[in-house]
Structures are given as C-alpha cells and as structure tokens.
Design a protein that fits this description.
The protein is an alpha+beta fold. It contains three helices and four strands, in the order H-H-E-E-E-E-H.
C-alpha cells in the first residue's frame, strides 16, 4: 500500500515537472521578455490616457456658454502683458493679464461701466480713453480717501 502511494506521488511529481515551464538562469533577459514588458506598459498607459480623456469629457463640468461672460475689449501693453475689460453679468472687471498672473484692477458696476453693449469694431481709442478716465478717477479717489 505504501509503495503504491509512493509510486503515485512520484508520477505526480514527474507530471508536474513535465508541464512546468523551464527555469531560466537569473540575469538573462530575452527579447520576448522585453517585448511583453513593453506591451504591458503600452496597455497601462493607454488605459490611463483613456480614463483621463473620459474624465475630462464626461465630468459634468462642461462650459455653459450662455453669454453672461465675455471680453468687451483688450488692450495690449507689451509682448506678454495686456489689460482686459471683462463683462460678467452686470459687472465689468478690469484685469491685468501677464504671463505669470491675472490681477483685478477695478470692478465697475452700474453707471461706472465703460461699455454697456456688445463690442464694436474699431472701438479701441474710446476704450483707451475711458480706461484712462477710470484710472484717473481711481487715483483721485485714493488721494481723497487717504
């Protein structure tokens, strides 16, 4: 009985060795290993890219362009600097835009708004003139407050 169990155990060991993959020596990398690693890397990167695209596409943060915010006018001051008049609802924001930051210069409401209608072509000189008036009014207001 014991010899039969030993014989069955030996046969199972030989069968498992016959079905197992050959053992490679350590330190040797074949071209098929590199190809399988590359394909795995491409698969993982493509899944990450697909997930990023899907998150951006279906995130629910879609821009709702209802016309409540638009650029009324822009005045370039240099190569990378400009002043932008932005209409947001009933307010107008005067913004200084550089390559490093965006800063609010003035918030205009009601009668202080520089332009109440849609931008007209060739209206830059009027914008520049009103901008200078608003800056001068702000400076005199600052002197009187101090």
């Amino acid at each position: 009985m014991l010899s039969k169990l030993g014989l069955i155990g030996t046969m199972l060991c030989w069968a498992s060795l016959a079905l197992a993959e050959p053992v490679k020596p350590h330190g040797i990398v074949s071209a098929s290993d590199v190809a399988s690693w590359g394909l795995g890397l491409l698969l993982v990167l493509s899944v990450i890219g697909l997930m990023a695209w899907a998150l951006r596409k279906f995130s629910g943060l879609a821009v709702n362009n209802t016309g409540k915010m638009h650029i009324v006018s822009a005045l370039p001051l240099g190569a990378r600097e400009k002043v932008i008049l932005l209409q947001v609802g009933k307010k107008q924001l005067l913004l200084a835009v550089t390559s490093a930051r965006i800063e609010t210069l003035q918030v205009l409401e009601g009668d202080d708004c520089l332009r109440k209608s849609a931008p007209e072509p060739m209206a830059e000189p009027a914008f520049a003139q009103k901008l200078m008036q608003a800056i001068a009014a702000n400076q005199t207001k600052g002197r009187h407050d101090a």
